[in-house]
Amino acid sequence: MWLTEDDVTRKIVFSGDIGNKNQPLLRDPQITKEADYVVMESTYGDRLHTTEKPDYVGELTRILQETFDKGGNVVIPSFAVGRTQELLYFLRQIKINRLVKGHENFPVYVDSPMAVEATGVFTENRYECFDEEAMQYVNEGINPISFVGLRLSITSDESKAINFEDTPKVIISASGMCEAGRIRHHLKHNLWRPECTVLFVGYQSVGTLGRKLIEGATEVKLFGEPVEVRAKITQLAGLSGHADKDGLIEWINAFEEKPKKVFVVHGEDQVCASFVECLKIEHGQRAYAPYSGTVFNLVSNKLEYEAEPVYIKKKAKPVTGVYARLVAAGQRLVALITKCEGMANKDLAKMADQINSVCDKWDIK
User: Fold this and answer.
1) Which of 5, 165, 277, 313 is the most exposed place for a label (fewest CB within 10 A)?
2) Taking the domain 56-235, which CATH number applies?
3) 105, 169 in Cβ contact below 8 A?
4) What are 287-302's pLDDT values in tens digits?
């Protein structure tokens, strides 16, 4: 994007979601080399993805087999663009190789008009979008995201009919964080059923229904009514459309000249703050994490108004038993961190990486 005012021209680059490398179906993200200002995401600005390539097909097969054997449905809240198409890529492999025993003909519903349209766009632009592995199928005349049993739901009547079909099935529906859209209807029909599984395949922001379910909510409200959570709630580990910390750093450092300012957004408060410090201290970037309402003049390169943060408060839960021990250890770590102010930046960075490594090791998916 170009901004021109009073004969001053500025080039602004908005990163969008910076893609994760070596992912199925889609090509790796491409770098940009020139910008005066950059607005970039920081979703995973405090962690690294595993170096070991996850067995997506194997894990998804296990979840399908376990759920279908109980007579349940697998409900997948999924982002319409990118994530849904990756899931179809995996499901096609499961279908073709007949990996789910006793349920080989299970139906897969894509219940999102946007996802259906996006899938068509992916197919039409396969030569520009798909990676080498997916292109091998294309070159053989095979559509890698289509298969027998795939059903596309467009109308509201088609959507409603899905939950009146008794056959164990996969339902892929938007939105990915369960905040709106048809997925909420499918949750209402399936969350209370212990034989069903709700499978999350993407990042869940603080305060969203998806985050509440992942964090163990036992009851949620849907359309004004309480719904008991009895279905199994799980995640497909490793499936991320976002670059990790190293990927974000590689992307921003690819600019031939450092931008006048790097605005860090789209991350939780602490993640934005820590990633900004990393960019400033370790990479010499002029980074800044603005809160909503902040005003920055791109022509004069001056901050005109800095908004105050608004924090999301979470309800405290009683802490007992061995878990209390873990909480005490966490409090000790926080106390230790407060004593570290003034230490050498190199030591602080090393300590931060070690803490993040422990968090990555024990992160419950």
Assistant:
1) 313
2) 3.40.50.10890
3) no
4) 999 998 999 998 888 9
